[in-house]
């Protein structure tokens, strides 16, 4: 069966390297992996348990139903201030109580122009995803340093080693999906 994967970039920036990378990854994926891009991070209200009611904010309901309908999630994110960008963390905070990440195979990619590859955001994101019981296979993670040197002006990947790493990451995500009951 075809797998439906929700792709999320943790950067709201128009010329984001992470968003470009996310699209390049989608372009490298095998046909059985079908991607939908979630662009709503910037429209979510700040997480407030008082708003987390039956008829909660529409943007939150939309995020939850799109996650529920997805077989897997792909996250590409920068690191800001040694952590996960607030807008991405905010989205995940909305999911703690509703549980759409439980048993959801999730690929975690951080990319940074620095030599560190966003390692602090990466570690922090793994902690949060672990808390909400996402399935993060070791192979389905990438920390990409020097991202600005690895994309061309059109946002295409110009680094062969990165292409190979992405293909291996996608294969790991695919097997994590197939390992789920009914997939
Ligand atoms: C950054 N950047 C950054 N990079 C990093 O590796 N660790 C960090 O803690 C931070 N902190 C940070 C704070 C602020 C305010 C800005 C503007 C930038 C650099 C960041 O990785 C770089 O701008 C990326 O290009 C952002 O990702 P996108 O938008 O290109 O996907």
TrEMBL record:
It comes from Paenibacillus rhizovicinus. Residues 4-146 form the NADPH-dependent FMN reductase-like domain. GO terms for molecular function: FMN binding; oxidoreductase activity. Signal peptide: none annotated. Gene3D superfamilies: 3.40.50.360. Pfam families: FMN_red (PF03358). Belongs to the azoreductase type 2 family. The lineage of its organism: Bacteria, Bacillati, Bacillota, Bacilli, Bacillales. This is NAD(P)H-dependent oxidoreductase. It comes from the Bacteria. One of its GO terms (cellular component) is cytosol. Coiled coil: none annotated.
């Amino acid at each position: 069966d075809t797998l439906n994967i929700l792709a999320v970039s943790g950067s709201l920036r128009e010329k984001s390297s992470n968003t470009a990378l996310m699209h390049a990854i989608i372009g490298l994926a095998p046909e059985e992996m079908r991607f939908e891009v979630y662009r709503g991070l910037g429209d979510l209200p700040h997480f407030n348990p008082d708003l987390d009611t039956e008829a909660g904010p529409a943007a939150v309901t939309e995020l939850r139903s799109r996650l529920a309908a997805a077989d897997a999630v792909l996250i590409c994110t920068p690191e800001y201030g040694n952590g996960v960008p607030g807008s991405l963390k905010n989205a995940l905070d909305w999911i703690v109580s509703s549980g759409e990440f439980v048993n959801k195979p999730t690929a975690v990619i951080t990319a940074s122009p620095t030599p560190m590859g966003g390692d602090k955001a990466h570690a922090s994101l793994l902690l949060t995803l672990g808390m909400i019981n996402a399935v993060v296979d070791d192979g389905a993670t990438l920390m990409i340093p020097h991202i600005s040197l690895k994309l061309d002006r059109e946002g295409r990947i110009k680094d062969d080693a990165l292409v190979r790493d992405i293909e291996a990451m996608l294969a790991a995500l695919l097997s994590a999906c197939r390992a789920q009951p009914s997939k």
